[in-house]
Model the fold of this input.
Amino acid sequence: MKRIVTLVLVCVLCSCQKKEVKGEEKKCPSGKEKKLEMYQMSEMAALMEQMYVDNKRVKERIQKGDTIGQFPEHFLKIYTAKFTDETENDLFFKQKAKDYIAAQRLLYSDPENLTAHFNAGVDACLKCHESKCGGPIPRIKKLYIK
Done:
């Protein structure tokens, strides 16, 4: 994600920087100066990034046969974290958030069926992202334990 943001910033900087051409200033093709703003993740985006990292670690632990520890309480911030676009925090999202937390709690409470419960948690992510923000779907699918 950081690489993409950096690449976009470099492209914008290269395409809109002032250059001296025979004593004249050259501007962006639109003729307007653009003010660069650094992308700031919303609380929800940052939480989802953290949940992805946590789930990637859990996947590795399950595959190695290690214990996975306790339910990460910070996952509960899914109910209160601020969105980039607050209209996305609708009834659909709230239900999918409950489904995700239920899947995660089951994963941490039933060590006998870790793979099945883990994949159910990944399913919960996908069901929401298929209707809301589809961008991370390919990345989420890589979490499945086969």
Summary: Strands lie at 19-21, 24-26. The longest strand covers residues 19-21. The longest helix spans residues 43-64.
